[in-house]
Design brief:
The protein has 111 residues and is α+β, with helices and mostly antiparallel strands. It contains 3 helices and 5 strands. It folds into 2 domains: 39 residues, no CATH class; 62 residues, no CATH class. It starts with a strand and ends in a 19-residue tail after the last strand.
Length: 111
């Protein structure tokens, strides 16, 4: 995968790592590639979830390799129709008091 700066940040956030590799080719002048990594096919769904949440989707649904993002401007009627079509398995969101962070249930700590 050739990564622009934005894509690199998404991958780093998803995997909780810092990518230090060089790019394998330069990419376009206006949005150059800054890193390259090899990923398995199975990594594309979690990366798509993070990319959609980071780009402003209020929630993301997955089912059997399909990923659907619900944008802030989507109406309740549109969301309801999507629910009927996709019958999603998992729902991801940054909603809640800690956004994308988890609260440790025993200590109450947020990291």
């Amino acid at each position: 995968m050739q990564a622009t700066d934005y894509a690199k940040r998404i991958v780093e956030r998803c995997l909780s790592v810092q990518i230090q590799s060089e790019n394998w080719n330069g990419g376009p002048q206006d949005d150059p590639h800054v890193a390259s990594i090899m990923l398995t096919q199975e990594m594309f769904v979690p990366l798509a979830v993070f990319a959609l949440l980071e780009s402003g989707c209020r929630e993301v649904w997955t089912k059997d390799g399909a990923v659907v993002g619900i944008e802030p401007g989507d109406t309740a009627d549109q969301v309801e129709r999507l629910k009927q079509v996709y019958e999603f398995n998992r729902r991801f969101t940054y909603h809640g008091p800690f956004q994308d962070r988890n609260q440790h249930q025993m200590s109450g700590r947020v990291r």
